[in-house]
Amino acid sequence: MSRKKIEWFPIVNNTLLILLALICIYPFLNILSVSLSDGVPVIRGKVYLWPIDFNIETYKYVLGNTRLGITRGLFNSIFYTVTGTVVAILLTFVTAYALSRKRLKGRYFIMLLFLFSMIFDAGLIPSYIVNNALGLVNSRWIMILPGALSTFLLIIARSFLDTIPSELEESAFIDGANEWQIMTRVYLPLSTPVLATIGVFYAVSIWNSFMTPLIYLQDQALHPLQLILYRLIIKPDGGTSFENLTVNGHQILPDNIEAATIFLAIFPILFVYPFAQKYFTKGMMLGSIKG
Fold first, then answer.
1. Three-state secondary structure along the chain?
2. How far apart are alpha carbons 27 and 17 in whole angstroms?
3. Rounded mean pLDDT of 220-237?
4. How many C-beta atoms lie closer than 10 Å to residue 249's C-beta?
5. What residues does 250 pair with on adjacent strands?
6. Which residues neighbour 239 within 8 Å (Cβ) at sequence distance 6 or greater?
7. Which pTM value belongs to this model?
8. Are residues 161 and 286 in contact, defined by beta-carbon separation less than 8 angstroms?
9. ∠ at Cα 231 (229, 233), nearest 5°?
């Protein structure tokens, strides 16, 4: 009777990956548990993985309190992310398609200009002067237009389009299709993986954007959730500091409010990746092979 040889590598590998996953997941579970727990066990340090005295009064208070501005910030963040991602995907795809056409004269020079802008940044003051001259300061468009085209994601999209056989384009030309029809009816449907990939990058970038609204948005009604989070937790002022509350028999402490606010800032963007995960790996691999 022969003994089966134990494969240690997959055991050690899986164990390390599970431990790493637990280390990454624990902060999220702890924040969620604190936000759903009564304030007394939270202040005593008893809440770790599971809520104690479960309640949702903290979320009702955070979302219903207009002085905190969480609901307004959540709406602004969703608007900036959805609108900015759609605009960025369309602009990136159209530019990548044009640069992937070999008949486009000067496409290498145009690509060099994009690479130049990626390596050499203009800096804060020149950028502010340009954005101010364009009327983007203190406007919602400042969160959408300046970052609507990433050179890195443009390279990925263009490399992906280069992998599509040119015979498809030639066949479409023979059938009488024009340039617009070839792009929208032939290349666009085949580009779903790379569009999903760059969409995830754009969405996460816009959602987590902090410096842009901090510098360019003075009107608090335009602030995204990240900036409100900063004002409430990192730099409480202007009467926005938290107080101890008792709502429907539950204690709501600053720790509960901070945890609920942080979770609201994380929760929506967590749902972006699962919907795009089906195409994400394929888009990244195909888009980076010929980069």
1. CCCCCCCHHHHHHHHHHHHHHHHHHHHHHHHHHHHCCCHHHHHCCCCCCCCCCCCCHHHHHHHHCCCCCHHHHHHHHHHHHHHHHHHHHHHHHHHHHHHHCCCCCCHHHHHHHHHHHHHCCCCHHHHHHHHHHCCCCCCHHHHCCCCCCCHHHHHHHHHHHHCCCHHHHHHHHHCCCCHHHHHHHHHHHHCHHHHHHHHHHHHHHHHCCCHHHHHHCCCHHHCCHHHHHHHHHHCCCCCCCCCCEEECCEEECHHHHHHHHHHHHHHHHHCHHHHHHHHHHHHHHHHHHCC
2. 17
3. 82
4. 9
5. 247
6. 67
7. 0.83
8. no
9. 65
- The residues pairing with 89 across neighbouring beta strands, listed in sequence order, are none
Burial profile 222-237: b = 16 or more Cβ within 10 angstroms, e = fewer: bbbbbbbbebbbeeee
Residue range 75-104, pLDDT digits in tens: 999 999 999 999 999 999 999 999 998 888
The answer to whether the beta carbons of residues 33 and 50 sit under 8 Å apart is yes
Which tokens belong to 137? 């300061």
CB 36 within 8 A of CB 55: yes
Do the bridges between strand 245-247 and strand 250-252 make them parallel or antiparallel, or are there none, so unpaired? antiparallel
- Residue 235: pLDDT band (50, 70, 90) is low
What is the rounded CA–CA span in Å between residue 74 and residue 82? 12
Evaluate the CA torsion angle 179, 182, 188, 191 in order and state its sign. Answer: negative
CA–CA distance, 22 with 40 (Å, rounded to integer): 26
> 246 has which bridge partners?
251
Spatial distance between the Cα atoms of 100 and 162, rounded to a whole number of angstroms: 6
With 80 as the cut, is the pLDDT of residue 245 above it? no
